[in-house]
Write a structure and sequence with these properties.
The structure holds two protein chains of two kinds. Chain A has a single domain, classed as Heat Shock Protein 90, CATH 3.30.565. In chain A, 39% of the residues lie in helices and 26% in strands. A six-stranded mixed β-sheet of chain A has the order 3-4-2-1-5-6. In chain A, a hairpin with a 2-residue loop joins strand 5 and strand 6. In chain A, helix 4 packs antiparallel against helix 6. The model of chain A has no long low-confidence stretch (mean pLDDT 91). Chain B is built from four helices and four strands. In chain B, strands 2-1-3-4 form a four-stranded mixed β-sheet, with helices on one face. The longest helix of chain B has 19 residues. Classes of the chains: A alpha+beta, B alpha+beta. At the A-B interface, helix 1, helix 4, helix 5 and helix 6 of A face helix 1, helix 2, helix 3 and strand 2 of B.
């Protein structure tokens, strides 16, 4: 994968598979202190200490259709190649948080890529989950919480054309505004 | 298409969408499922998803549900898209890039004709 936003999508898919009802994603570009951080926090089934310890091993996976899990090890390696790290904190029955940090200016750091598209994909394809997105550049931030929208829609799917348009505009504009304000 | 700027507009858009859906339901609800395992994402599933959502938005296609699934064990055929129309059996497609995804929406989901050369026999 050539974009961090694709890795983020992949890591968030683990949270979806964990049976979480709420998933919180944060992407922070701290330019002043030269860090790029991403985290995915879920309230899914969680993992015990042994599973957490082994989950960065590519030969461990909870999946049954295929024997090798590659998502977390790939991202961990990418972070460590950029003076960064990946941590997993988890508790059975409570949930899991994956946190990853990069030196933002590192020559080997992958581009962030299309973060709006990652948010949209997760939001629209998993309507049973309560999504919270946070994107920040230094002191400017965009927060998206889909709960009020779901209440308003009252069961109407996100995939209706007008609703899709609203969600895409909201997320794309939110992210663009953060970048514009930071430069301005 | 009306552009929604606030939750108030969203309420109005909801009413409009509900009317259009009622007309559509007679022909059976269509469900489109995109494979989003590590294998799918690495093969370009997010672009496939984007193409599907863009087509729904641009062509104002009502009554289609888009969801996702994890790895279904056919990693070499990713990106994988499955289509279920009404009570008909599920059709599984492999190697679905953005162009193929648009074709599947137009020919299969809208007109009921599966895109034969991308169907995977399960």
């Amino acid at each position: 994968m050539r974009e961090l936003s694709l890795h983020l999508l992949d890591i968030a898919e683990n949270s979806v598979a964990s049976g979480a009802s709420q998933i919180k994603i944060r992407v922070v570009e701290a330019i002043k202190i030269d860090l790029l951080q991403m985290s995915v926090e879920d309230n899914g089934k969680g993992m015990d200490t042994a599973m957490v310890a082994s989950v960065t091993d590519p030969f461990v996976t909870s999946r049954t259709t295929r024997k090798v899990g590659l998502g977390i090890p790939l991202l961990k390696e990418a972070a460590e190649a950029c003076n960064g790290f990946l941590t997993i904190t988890s508790q059975v029955g409570v949930g899991t948080t994956v946190f990853v940090q990069f030196q933002r200016s590192h020559i080997d750091r992958m581009p962030l890529g299309d973060i709006a598209e990652t948010f949209l994909t997760l939001l629209i394809a998993n309507p049973a989950i309560h999504w919270l997105f946070h994107y920040q550049v230094d002191d400017e931030a965009f927060d998206f919480d889909d709960a009020p929208i779901k209440t308003e829609l009252d069961g109407l799917p996100y995939t209706e054309p007008d609703i899709l348009n609203f969600l895409r505009e909201t997320i794309e504009t939110g992210i663009q505004d953060v970048r514009a304000r930071d430069i301005g | 298409m009306t552009t929604i700027k606030s939750l108030e507009d969203l309420k109005r858009a909801r009413e409009d969408a509900l009317k259009k859906r009622d007309a559509k339901t007679a022909s059976g609800v269509a469900q489109v499922i995109v494979g989003m395992g590590t294998c799918g994402i690495a093969a370009g599933a997010r672009d496939t998803m984007k193409a599907i959502l863009d087509t729904i938005e641009k062509d104002s296609l009502n009554g289609i549900i888009v969801t996702q699934t994890g790895c279904i064990g056919l990693c070499e055929k990713e990106p994988i898209v499955q289509v279920v129309i009404g009570t008909q059996p599920k059709v599984t497609y492999g190697k679905v890039d953005a162009e193929v995804a648009k074709k599947i929406l137009k020919e299969h989901v809208i007109n009921g004709q599966p895109v034969a050369d991308h169907v995977i026999q399960m």
